[in-house]
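Table S2 (continued). Query chain:
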Amino acid sequence: MKVEYQHIPVMKQEVGQLLALQAGEVFCDCTLGGAGHSLALAPELGAEGLLIGIDQDREALETSTKRIRQSFPDLAFSPLSGNFGDLDQLLLELNIPGVDAFLFDLGVSSYQLDTQARGFSYAQEAPLDMRLDPGSQSQTAAEIVNSLNEADLAWILATYGEERWAARIARAIVNERAKQPFTTTTELAETIRAAIPAAARRTGGHPAKRSFQALRIALNRELEVLPCGLKAALRWLNPGGRVVVLSYHSLEDRIVKRIFSEAQNPPNQPPEATVFAIACESVFEILTKRPLLPTESEIKNNPRSASAKLRAWRRQSEAGSEAGLQVCPEVGPGTHPDE
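Corresponding output:
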């Protein structure tokens, strides 16, 4: 049975307050999904505004486009199929000068997790797939599990899943696939469970949770495209524009706060770039010194919001800041003050 594409917008009130959309503005939802956030925010744009919806899941994009156009027939809406890592190219298609507000709601949707055939869940038997864009991606999670050597598998599990037992799990996967290649989620989940010591399996949720997260992130290059999308949003942001990001695990959040910090304080400037660095520092203002978290009542109503962290920043509108944006160098590695 097909699961209906629903999207319960996480921290809807906080997102709306920080985006602070106004009539006539251009708003880009970089992870449209089931359009939960966009449907809630669309009335603020008015008939003169523009809503841009981006999603690499074509089924999600098609469903959400119908919902938005039925709910707001007078609103200008531009659906774009693709990954926000290619935000520059996607926005160039629209021939617009800039964007007033961006929203990034990271990770996978409830629909993707609950649709058995997509193979994201360790709790349901399904083909070992995990592709966010089955229409254009050829490699599946099964191919990763069945082809990578033990060292590479262990690195993925430890790096992207922060899995303590990564080496043991990788060894167990290699041993089991020598007998028969993995084809289903339950086969992999059981191998992971058996590889983890019994005492460790009693806490921390399902034993396969971290490994499945790691494989999904690696397959879909989620942490590689995130900095690209955030930096592109900075380049497209109009004076006074806002960016809001919802992340759901520590790896994402570290990248978000690093990019935010570097946008406000570009690191490692050469002496001759002092004037430019000072100008750059005044361009962006962090609106959330620490991430906002969902309330207890929201977590009770939507348990999948429990791990959410919300961060936001704004491009200042002073004339000096606008000049600074043009000379800012590309940001590089850095450390957030809160780390």
